[in-house]
Amino acid sequence: MHVTGNLSQVANFTPGPWRVEAHFSKALYEIRPCYPVDGFSAGFAAIARVAGDKRTVDDTVRAANARLIGASPEMFELLHELSVSLASRMTADDTEAHSACTKARQLTCRILGEPA
């Protein structure tokens, strides 16, 4: 798979970066774009919410989940950049690099909703 251009546009998700807003009184974290994005709910509407329930009483877990989700656009871009860079540098007998590139390609395809 070879992607050119803005990966978030290819994947049809709200472009990053995203930010995490904590609402401590509600035990809720909201993930929002850092800037207005045309065509995405007036730009600043929440993309995702991480809330507590009876199983997750520890706020550190909610906060960690929110940070992970909030970093998703940058992680996706970096995954793609690293896999392209690694693929261009690996040798034919580098089984670890081939395995890493295969896993990165499969994950990228999963994110894009495409078959691996």
What distinguishing features does this structure have?
116 residues, alpha+beta, 3-stranded antiparallel β-sheet, 3 strands, 46% helix, 14% strand, elongated
* Uncertain residue ranges: none
**Strand-residue proportion:** 5-15%
Mean pLDDT, as a whole number? Answer: 82
What is the gyration radius calculated from CA atoms?
Answer: 17 Å
Helix percentage range: 40-55%
Largest sheet: 3 strands, antiparallel
Count structural domains.
1
Secondary-structure element order, as H and E?
Answer: HEEEHHH
- Count of DSSP helices? 4
Strand order of the largest sheet: 1-2-3
Q: Which class do the helix and strand fractions yield?
A: alpha+beta
Distance between the termini: 9 Å
Q: Characterize the overall form.
A: elongated
Number of strands: 3
Description:
- This protein is α+β, with helices and mostly antiparallel strands.
- It has one domain.
- 46% of the residues lie in helices and 14% in strands.
- The protein has 4 helices and 3 strands.
- The protein has helices at 7-11, 59-70, 72-89, 95-112, and strands at residues 18-23, 28-33, 48-51.
- Helix 3 packs antiparallel against helix 4.
- The longest helix has 18 residues, at 72-89.
- The N and C termini lie close together (9 Å).
